[in-house]
Description:
- The chain is mainly α.
- It has a domain at 1-173: Tetratricopeptide repeat domain (Serine Threonine Protein Phosphatase 5, Tetratricopeptide repeat), CATH 1.25.40.10.
- The protein is 72% helix and 0% strand.
- The chain is built from 18 helices and no strands.
- It has helices at 6-15, 32-47, 50-64, 68-80, 84-97, 102-114, 118-129, 136-153, 156-169, 174-186, 190-204, 207-219, 223-236, 241-253, 257-274, 283-294, 298-309, 314-327.
- Mean pLDDT is 84; it is low at 1-46 and 330-344.
Amino acid sequence: MPCPQRRLHRLWSESRAVDGGLMVSRGTRISWSLLCAFLCLGVACAHNGPEHQIEALSERLIREGASADVLLERAIEYRVLGKLKEAARDLQRAVRLAPGDSLVLLELAQIELQRGRGSEALLWVRRALQVPGLATGERAAILMIRSHCRAAEGSKLEALEDCSEALRWNPQLISAYLERSAWQQRLQRPRERILGLEEGIRRTGAGLLVAERIEALLDDAQWQQALEAIEPELTSSRLQGTWKIRRARAFKGLSRRTEADRDLQSALEEIELRMPRVVKDSSLLMDRALARELLGQTEAAIQDYKLAAGCGGGEEAIEAGRRLRRTRSGRPLWPWHPRRATQH
């Protein structure tokens, strides 16, 4: 009988991205750690936490002998605890027992990539793609991991192509649209980016893609089109700070500076009210940093980008901080080594 977490694991594997958040634009970044926490909370409530489950699974392995399903389940628990080496060891044993199990191969590739072992991850990806009878969702998930492997190698075009291929297999995979958009932005393909997001919106109706399309319009200096798309979202949104920052970008592009500044001040007031005493998610910091940057508060924006880099903002926050330091008149770009976010 399949292990009880396989259904959860299949959904998890087919929808997630690697390490600290989907690689998307500032405006639509979502925290992968937050998704992990949500899913793991449900699992933990069911069996009193991963430590107890690992103990129970270890006893079961001793009592019943090794099986790929139980080893996969224990590897998932190890991953929840951040014990990636132990997770990889269990998954390698599982592969020996079930060499054609696509979920085991998918998980092992993901774990190796998280460990910074991109070449090993790519080997497991290739092996997983050779499994006969792969479900379309599984194939798409494997292709997305291959995209992450390509990204780790610096192969931007190949990473983009893998996102597109994943979408041919699973047109509902929202993360693939977002990551493809990010690569198209980096490769300076604005028209292709906007058309791809519009296709994703038609296929999925996802609000994340609506927001990403607006970001794409802003990045392409299509100020009026962006403004027209922002207004209905702003009207229907309870939390308006992020949308006001977007509208301020459009206003600035249209030389409507007074309206832009008013939106930015209003957004900052809302962000300050929502900002927790101990910040663990980068999204509010990234919003505040951008608002301060647009208001010309360069030093404060740099500090916010630095804080965001330490709690999940990743390369986006680092690059934004460096960009501001470079543009600061008469000041050099000092080395900046952000604190690595704790992985859970």
